[in-house]
Amino acid sequence: MGICDQRTVIITGAGGGLGRAYAMAFAQAGANVVVNDVRAEAAADVVSAIVEQGSRAIASAHDISRLETAQRIVDDAVSAFGEVHALVNNAGNLRDRMFVSLSEDDWDEVMRVHLRGHFCLSNLLARHWRDRAKAGQAIDARIINTTSGAGLQGSIGQSNYATAKAGIAALTLVQAAELQRYGITVNALAPAARTHMTESAMAERVRKPEDGSFDYWDPANVASLVVWLGSAESRDVTGRIFEAAGGQISIADGWRTGPMQDKGSRWEPSEVGNVVRALIERGVPAQPVYGA
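RE: above sequence
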């Protein structure tokens, strides 16, 4: 018996990297897997690997950033497996530029894939699960979003990507608050692993060790958390932003009200500078870490 037996999961961007690792891990845990990727051949290759190990999967190359085509992904999943129980919004892209060098297309394309891509399938499935819940059926559904350390801390040269990922973190909190009443949990993950994007940016750092030691950057390390979040066992966890890399799992703290100074009356503009600098000194961290 696997932790996800009898559950069906849709995974976007599952033709390689983290998405492929998630797909393989969910299949090994007993789930039926919908492998979505705009690269049809890559999706088909992952399905073949899953079927060869005796599990069930179908490929999908439909566009996740349009409701019409996203609906086809849901329809195909329901047709093949009867129901959908979890969605992993993993697909993404990069258009790295310094902010002053960004074009309108650089901005819009990243927002389309990340933010619209997270919206469309989540919205369609949330409606589907809500309607079933209102009809009296028991729902135990999961949405797992993908944010990033860039979205949580900022990253030089990635203002479009970081903004999209920060938006996904905020979206997760709102979804969790609104959808819990229907039996839907929503969490997000900021993963660090070897992918095409990380190999392009820091190939030496993420290289697989040749001595057989623990492969910190193996995407399968992150997949364990994602599979658990997609299982029935995680029903009591929602509205959390996780960070995962290697053997490490942490929960991001997020924005919160920090140090405060209350005068009890209106501040004069000439007084504000000293107050702000004092609050920054008391803050955690005292100075932001750019480019982390």
